[in-house]
Amino acid sequence: MTRSGQEYLASLRDGREIWLDGERVADVTAHPAFRNTAASLARLYDLAHDSAHTPVLTQGGVHRAFAVPRSHQDLVARREAYKVWAEASFGFLGRTPDCMAGAAAGFAALPQLFRTGGHDGSAAALAYHRRLAEGDLYPVFTLTNPQIDRTRAASEQEEDDLVLRVVAEKDGGIVVRGAKMTGTAAVFGNEVIVGTIEPLPAQDADHAVCFSVPVDTPGLKFVSRTSYEGRARSVFDNPLSSRFDENDALLVADDVFVPWERVLVYRNTDAAFGMWWRTPAYLNFVHQAATRFWTKLEFLTGVAILVTRANNTHDLPPVTQAVGRLLGHVAQAKAFVLAAEASYEEVDGGRGGVAPGRDISYAQRIMAGELYPRALQEIKLLTGGGIIQLPASGQDLLHPEIGPLVRKYIRSPGTPAEERVKLLKLAWDALGSEFASRHEQYERFYHGAPHVYLTQQAWEGGADACEALARTCLDGYGLEGAR
Fold first, then answer.
1. 328, 331, 336, 339 alpha-carbon torsion, rounded to 10°
2. Is residue 476 part of a domain?
3. Domain count, the chain
4. Tens digit of pLDDT per residue, the chain (483 long)?
5. Are 45 and 9 a contacting pair, CB within 8 Å?
6. Is 430 within a domain?
7. Domain limits at 76?
């Protein structure tokens, strides 16, 4: 059964080792750097547990993201659930619990991939999916190696514990040591799955491991980046960063023991890579991410429209055209989601259900990474200098001496100062703040570096069909056409 928001918050008070600004955080649900975002995540659980959205978000008492879709209709139903949660944070919480839940369903759709010569992780993969779904747990992940020397393989780094690897075997499991980076939302999760999503050479077998353990596992440390929530002055002044900063953390494993029943892949470079790319796991990632991206563009475009109305410029032809371009971007993002669903493919001949279409899903990665910064630039041009010349905080509006000045000079026809300041502070938090800069970088690299996803699109994006069509044209005539 699904959990309530309070039950989710209670699950975070488990003694997990989170570090921020040289301080170990005792309770992420109470700490000023994390508590508001934790509350926003708890609201997602409440929406699924008991709200008007429960029928959309759940099926048989389980969140729809955990279900293995069997038809196009199932994909649509899952997307509708994704959309409800995405709208609750206006698209700014990216790695919500439904993200990795979809990947876990992808593992369950093709468990035989986890059977290798040295280790059979199929039971662990199925148990992982079942444990998450039945417990309504928040699964997070860290899959990226630290950026130390990118010219060397993991096993060739200057120290042997820079990239997480297996250092020992025991009767009941393995011991791992090292680090993984960019654990987005990891501090808010219940279980963290650790693996690698990039191809590894054969000599990196010690690093070709994937497992999932509770976030409070002894020896696991999470070193948080700067908290934008912690720096936010108020919800009025920082309406997004104060409530939707999902954070990113460096995971460090200090001789962490992992029981065998939690090891999905062990010392097999093909399986460590294939578990993401040959099961529907990554396609399910994209389905959730693409739905969220579409929602985020809807929100940003809505902010742009509100700003143009507040500036009394909405009906000027150049502004109308700019808004039209933004709405075109929204439709483009929506089209990728619907097209991926409509071009679904069977998994394992249908025995593993269906997954969103591969070529459209992969192409969405290109579109999103390139479109987001362009959309931000277009909206910034519409907002102009207004988002810079703002009072330091909402307190200025309440001050007996400064308040009247702000109300007099920071207003526009039909938009009083308080409403205008509130809107422009929202726009700044979305477009120009440090929080906004993180989101621009996040969307650029959400699906990896461009050289990775562009190359993969060239390999798997239907090049043969394009080439064959062009070849058909060439084969249809010869030199006789020169007469």
1. -130
2. no
3. 2
4. 899 999 999 999 999 999 999 999 999 999 999 999 999 999 999 999 999 999 999 999 999 999 999 999 999 999 999 999 999 999 999 999 999 999 999 999 999 999 998 899 999 999 999 999 999 999 999 999 998 887 788 887 788 888 999 999 999 999 999 999 999 999 999 999 999 998 999 999 999 999 999 999 999 999 999 999 999 999 999 999 999 999 999 999 999 999 999 999 999 999 999 999 999 999 999 999 999 999 999 999 999 999 999 999 999 999 999 999 999 999 999 999 999 999 999 999 999 999 999 999 999 999 999 999 999 999 999 999 888 889 988 998 899 998 888 888 888 888 898 999 999 999 999 999 999 999 999 898 877 778 778 887 888 888 899 889 999 999 999 988 777
5. no
6. yes
7. 5-277
Closest CA to 5 of 111, 136, 105, 108: 136
Residue that finishes a domain, picked among 259, 277, 295: 277
Q: Is residue 483 part of a domain?
A: no
Query: Are residues 272 and 285 both part of a single domain?
Result: no
Cβ 44 vs Cβ 85: under 8 Å: yes
- Using DSSP's 3-state secondary structure scheme, residue 172 falls into coil
Give the CATH number of the domain where residue 53 resides. 2.40.110.10
Domain boundary among 220, 243, 277: 277
pTM for the model:
0.94
Tell me phi and psi for residue 357, to 5 degrees.
-60, 135
